[in-house]
Amino acid sequence: MAILFCNNFIKPLPLLLLLSFTDLFASTLSLGIGINYGQIANNLPTPSRVSFLLRSLNVTRVKLYDADPNVLTAFANTNVEFVIGLGNEYLQRMSDPQQAQAWIQQHVQPYHTQTRITCITVGNEVLTGTDTQLKSYLLPAMQGVYRALVNLGLSNEIYVAHPHSAGILVNSFPPSSCSFRQDLSEYIHGMLNFHVQTKSPFLINFYPFFAYKDNPNEVPLDYVLFQPNQGTTDPITNLKYDNMLYAQIDAVYSAIKAMGHTDIPVKVSETGWPSKGDPNEFGATPVNAALYNGNLFQRMQQNQGTPAKPSEPIDVYVFALFNENLKPGPASERNYGLYYPDGTPVYNIGLRGFLPRMDYSAAKKNELSLIDIKR
C-alpha cells in the first residue's frame, strides 16, 4: 500500500479520479466503520459543516460523548445513526426512574424523531477507575435508563451499554485464556446478565498502540498495524492471529464465555492510533497512524470476522474525527484525529485513494464545505 507524505509534490487529482476515490472510501466506511466525534477543543468546525463532511463520505454511524443538541439537530433528516453519551457525573441520579426518564425526555425525545439515535452509553470506563462508589452506581444507572426507555416506548429502537477499558481484562493472550479481573467480577457479572436480558452488546475500547508504546522491543509493530507478519497462534484453539485487535476482541469473547455467556456480541467502541506523541510515546507518528487506520478500513471493506467468530463482521468505531486541542494528558491524547480542525486530513490513508479534506474557500459561497482530494 503506497502512502505519500511529500507535501512538495502535492497535485490535484483529475475530477473523475477524485470522485472514484471518494466513492471507494465511502463504500468502505458504509460497511460498518463508525466515527467517534469528540469535541474537547475550542477550534472545531460547526456541527453543520461536520454533518456535510461525514455525509459526503457516506459515514452512517457516529458516536458522541454527550447528547449535544447542536450536533443532533445538524444531522436531522439524514441517514446517520448516533450513539449518544451520558457522563459519569449522571450515574447516581439515573437509578432514580423519574430522573432517568426526565433525562431521556430532554436529551433524546426532542431529536429522535428526526435524528436516529440507536444507543445510549451510560458512563465511560468506570470499572477501571478508582471510585468504588461510582462502580456501584453503574449497573443501577444502566437499568434505570433502560426502564425509562421501556416506559417511553423506545427500548426496541435504542439500546443501553457501557464502554469499558481494556484494563478490565487479565491474561489477554492467548485469547482463549482471557478472563475479567477478579476484583471486578461482581460488577461485570451483573452487567452481562443485563446485556442478555436487554439484547444489547458489550462495548470495549481497544488501542493496540498502548501495547506497542509500552513494549516496543517486544510487540512487533507489523502485528499491531495489520501489516504482513508471521502472526501468533493460540496454543489451545490453534487459531492464528495476524493482528492484535482481532486477538483482543476474541479475548473478550473468551472472558464473557468464562462467565457463562455465549450470546453477547462484542463491539469496539473506540480504536485508533495517534499521529503525534511525547518523546516517550513510541510509534506515535503519521505513518503508523495512516497504516493502522488505513489497514483497518481495508479489513472492514472485506467484511471480516475474527478467527473465533469468522461469520460475525467486527463492529468498530474509530477514534477520532478531529484532533482535540484541549484534551488533558500526554501529547498523543490531542492527536488521534483523522482531520485537523480546519478540515484538512492529518495524513493520507492508502485505500487506493486518500482521505478527503474540506475546502473552506468554497464554503464561503454556500455555507457548506466541499470535498477536495489531493496527493
TrEMBL record:
InterPro entries: GH (IPR017853), Glyco_hydro_17 (IPR000490), Glyco_hydro_17_plant (IPR044965). It comes from the Eukaryota. SUPFAM superfamilies: (Trans)glycosidases (SSF51445). Keywords: Glycosidase, Hydrolase, Plant defense. Belongs to the glycosyl hydrolase 17 family. PANTHER family: GLUCAN ENDO-1,3-BETA-GLUCOSIDASE BG1-RELATED-RELATED (PTHR32227). This is Uncharacterized protein. It comes from Solanum tuberosum (Potato).
